[in-house]
Amino acid sequence: MKKAILLLSILFLTASYSQEIKQIPQITVNGEGKVKVIPDQATIVVTVETKGNNAKDVKKENDQKMEAVLRFIKKMNLDPADYKTQRVSLNPQYDYEKKKHSYNATQTLEILLKDLSKYDELMDGLVDEGINRIDNVTFQSSKLAQHQSEARKLAIEEAKMKAEDYVSVLGQKIGRAMTISDNSQPFYPQPMYMAVKSMEMSDTKAPRETLAVGEINITANVTVSFILE
């Protein structure tokens, strides 16, 4: 009997405690922080593509062009860790009208360019050496982690400001934060699919400008619950 009474007492206290927790006045708000950044790097994906009727000849020609491309990249003094072969393929193509086989060979390079002032020189050289496909160019920041941290702080500040605005009308104040949820989506730089076209200039020595870098947005989103005082 004593055990039963003790058990009922514990259940009653637990229920009372849970009810008390639920009755704590609070406000829940969302906050967003956004940092606009001028990119200082670009990831460039380019391809050498060759076609022909003989698989061996097509692959040989493709390899020779890629060798020339890699020699040029080395002359640009890029860090070997900043460029890599992304994929290699040799595929048969069948022409149903002519009833003949042909072959298509591709090699794709991914290049991290850490100095955007070299962009035009790099792209011109790549095309001259055999690159015939620019798959995409993605602009990014070398200080992404720092900017993400700043965006998170701005998100918290906005959430606090919202909460203060709401409760000020009621003559109350916000207390400490009870919960903080990070709702931010992973940041993936958006690729720019480009066909680079330079303007004709009367003065061939004039600097070329084929790149409009613009800005990228780094955002953070949070949900915060504050106690009301």
From TrEMBL:
Domain of life: Bacteria
Keywords annotated in UniProt: Signal
GO biological process: DNA damage response
Residues of the signal peptide: 1-18
InterPro entries: 26kDa_periplasmic_antigen, SIMPL/DUF541
Name under which the protein is recorded: 26 kDa periplasmic immunogenic protein
